[in-house]
Amino acid sequence: MLRLILRDLRLVLRQGSDATAALMFFVLCVVLFPFGVGPEPNVLMRIAPGVLLIAALLAALLSMERLFQGDFEDGSLELLLLSPLPAEGVAVAKVAAHWLVTGVPLMIVAPLLALLLRMPVDQLGLLVGTLALATPLLSLIGAVGAALTLGARRSGVLLPLLVLPLYIPVLIFAAAGLDAGLSGLSPRPHLLLLGGMLCGALVLAPLAIAAALRAAHE
Amino acid sequence: MTSSSPFTGRDLLCLRGGRLVFQDLDFTLAAGGCLTLVGPNGSGKSTLLRLMAGLLKPLRGTIAWDGVALAQDPEAHRARLHYVGHLDAVKASFTCREILSFWAGVRGVADRAAVDRALAAFAIDTIADVPGRFLSAGQRRRLSLARLVAAPAPLWLLDEPTVGLDRASVALLEGAIARHRADGGRVVLSTHIDLATPGGAVLDLAAFAPAEDDEDGAEDAA
Lengths: 218, 222
Hints:
The complex is a heterodimer of chains A (218) and B (222).
Chain A: H1 2-15, H2 17-37, H3 41-64, H4 66-73, H5 76-81, H6 87-116, H7 124-148, H8 155-182, H9 188-216
Chain B: E1 7-16, E2 19-29, E3 34-38, H1 45-53, E4 60-65, E5 68-69, H2 74-79, E6 81-84, H3 96-106, H4 112-121, H5 137-150, E7 155-159, H6 167-182, E8 186-190, E9 201-204, H7 214-221
Parallel strand pairs in B: 3-8, 3-9, 6-7, 7-8
Antiparallel strand pairs in B: 1-2, 1-4, 4-5
Helix pairs in contact in B: 3-4, 3-5, 4-5
């Protein structure tokens, strides 16, 4: 599994495009908001959590379509499913690699963008913490959709339709946590719920992904 | 690989896309044996190989290794097979050696010498550091076949392994198959050209095709 993660990371380093495109999309998306909404600090601060989270969500989705596609098309996925590695292990490794190349860079860039949106400096820790819970969830849930749409024509349209509704709970609790922090309340209950969802997804998503990958090869 | 455990299929029936591909198919493959699948296009050669690999499940019948059905222990079966399909799993930005090391590593072989031996066995040692995007179709296929040698596994399932190979490479493949069988390994392959497999059995899938009867076909589709 570690070998597969390392291979995927190396693949991204050599080919670049997908992960960097997602990151650039995230940055540009967030930067556009002050232009559209105006530079009013209070307004920007008020919308900052939602803007950051929705941009992160769309960036994760953008890079999701290619998650299994490349390996599916060149036959690597078939061989991985026939390797001694359990299919669930393949799923976990692919998702982990995806999170490392999209989720982690997002977490690093997000505080800088948050400053641009006039978020108070003392809230940045909370922002990174929330993203640390939310981005693996986005990767896990998105990967289920990506595996299900494998081999389908027009999967680019199908994937967002399938996955975006499932992202709503993540968005709600992550945004509520950040809002609570901004208004001086404790973000703890929201983060605990996010953590609970992450625990559930960590167990269930690999099972669903593995089943979908197997079905794609029938 | 000393066991005489047979690899068998009994009474297999397979349905693909609502169409009956073959029925009442039996096969037995002992250690050191080779089974060559022949038959016209669409007669189910690839389907049978995918059944044997466990990628597909038969609608009826069982495939078993030493009496244990594949469905009961799919992971043990995956550990003992190599599958070479129509796709070569070559990444454009990785070199031949990196690709082969990865696939050997997935099967627990982290030995650089084994990878080098496998590259040499299919005469791709001279292009070991060339990235995948510059390989010809034949070179890609040879790289795919080199996986067989890099990490030993008792059962080779080869779906048209000679596609894109020149005469010299076909000879290399024949040599590899012969060595594998001498070590007690088994091979199932489908091919359209004459591949020398001394002492190997031939399974003609056309014999197991359902009767060409329209009413029968309509019944099966329904």
